[in-house]
Amino acid sequence: MNNREKYNNAFIESLDVEESQLAGLKYQDVPAWDSVGHMGLVSEIEDAFDIQFETDDIVDFNSYEKGIEILKKYSVVIE
Amino acid sequence: MKEQFEPIYNLGAYEIQQYQQNRYPLLFIDVVEEVRPGEYARAKKNFSYNEWFFPAHFADEPNVPGFVQLECLAQTFIMTFLTFPEHKGKKTAFLNVNNLSMRKQIVPGDTLIIEAHLKSFKRGIAIGYVEGKVNGENALYVDIKVGLPDVMKAYIPKSAENK
After folding, report:
1. Do B152 and A55 touch (CB under 8 A)?
2. Is B1 inside any structural domain?
3. Among chain A residues, CA nearest to B155
C-alpha cells in the first residue's frame, strides 16, 4: 500500500467517507469529522505512518489537503 | 518512557469525589478497591432496596435500571485516568459505548464488582473495556470511550473556532 492509499484509508476508516469525497474535504464538512472524529483521524494517520503529531499540527490540520502538507514535516510524502 | 504511578487502594465515597465530579444521587460506586493509574481500576457497588430507583423500577419486581449499571462501569473506568495528578477532579463525557451486553438482572441485595481496563489514553480520550460481575457471574460488559473536554479542546482544528 503506498502512502496515498494509507492516507486515504485513514479518512475512509475513521470518518466513514467515500474516496470520492476526499478531495477538498474540510473539517466539519461531514458529521463524523467533528472534534471527536478529528482525534480518531489523527490517531489513525499516526498509526499508519508511525509518527507522532505535535499539538500545533493537530490544530492546523483542518482539511484533506492541509494534512498532506503537514505530513511533509514528518518526512511522509503523499504523491 | 511511560510514567508509572503507585497503586491506590480503598477509596471511599469521600475520596472518590476528590477524583471525579459525580455526586449524589448520581454517584453510584461505593468503594474503589484498587486503582493502577493508567491501567486498571476495581470498584464495588452494593445495591439495597433503599436506592431511589427501586420503588420506580419496578414496584413489583425491583431491579437496577440499565443506565445505572452502565454508569457504575463508567464511574469505575474514569478512575483509571482521573488518578493521574494532572487530571484529578476533572469533568468527563461519554464519547462512545460499543458492544454493551447485559447478561443478568441485578436486584436488591446484590453486589456488583466492576473491573475497568484502560487500553489507551491520548489527548484527553480514554478507550477501554469494563465488566461487572455479581456473585462471580458476568452481569454486563462494554467497550467504552470517555473524553476529558478540558484536554480535548486544545486539539480542535482552527476552522472550528470561526464557526
Report:
1. no
2. no
3. A59
Parallel, antiparallel, or unpaired for β B40-46 and B93-102? unpaired
Cell numbers that stand for A29 in this block: 464538512
**A28/B159 CB distance under 8 A:** yes
What are the CA-CA distances from residue B95 to residues B98, B103, B124, B152 (Å)? 10, 23, 11, 12
Q: Is residue B112 part of a domain?
A: yes
Would you say B116 and B40 are in contact if contact means Cβ atoms under 8 Å apart?
yes
Domain boundaries, chain A: 3-73
Residue with cell string 476526499: A22
Q: Which of B84, B144, B147 is nearest to B119 (CA)?
A: B144
Q: Which residue among B152, B159, B160 places its CB closest to the CB of A39?
A: B152
Q: How many domains would you assign to chain B?
A: 1
pTM equals 0.89
Confirm whether B3 is domain-assigned: no
> What residues in chain B have per-residue pLDDT under 70?
1-2, 159-163
Per-residue model confidence (pLDDT) at position B160: 47
Taking any CB pair shorter than 8 Å as contact, residues of chain A touching chain B are 26-28, 35-36, 38-39, 42-43, 55, 58-63
> CATH 1.10.1200.10: does it fit domain A3-73?
yes
* CATH label of the domain that carries residue B154: 3.10.129.10
